[in-house]
Amino acid sequence: MQRNWDLIRRILLKLEEKADPRSLLLPDEITGFDKVTVSYHFKLLHNAQLIEATSTSTPEQYSYSAICLTWDGHEFLDKVRNDSVWNKVKGTVQSKSLDLSFDVIKQVATATISAML
Questions:
Q1: 0.85 exceeded by the pTM?
Q2: DSSP assignment, residue 50?
Q3: What is the pLDDT of residues 4-50, one digit of tens each?
Q4: 25: number of CA atoms within 13 Å, CB side?
């Protein structure tokens, strides 16, 4: 399964919106994607230390739930929260034929924000 950066951004935004940092964000709360894909991205974000997540899997079903953003998750989201910055980041990365990696996205987002100042 490939990483979907638009889904990653949506998950981070949704976690930030939660009023109670102790409640779980369930995979079916992210619309437009199946539960396994969302769970996989919860696990990826947890492994990257951008969110806290927990396995809610059963022998019959693969499932992760997200709990909250970490400090690094908040820092990353601050760089890509703005729609216009996010679209410029994606456009820049695609126009230069770069891979959408975490480090590249952070660098391009930082440069984009700096140019806007």
A1: yes
A2: S
A3: 999 999 999 999 998 887 789 999 999 999 999 999 999 999 999 99
A4: 27
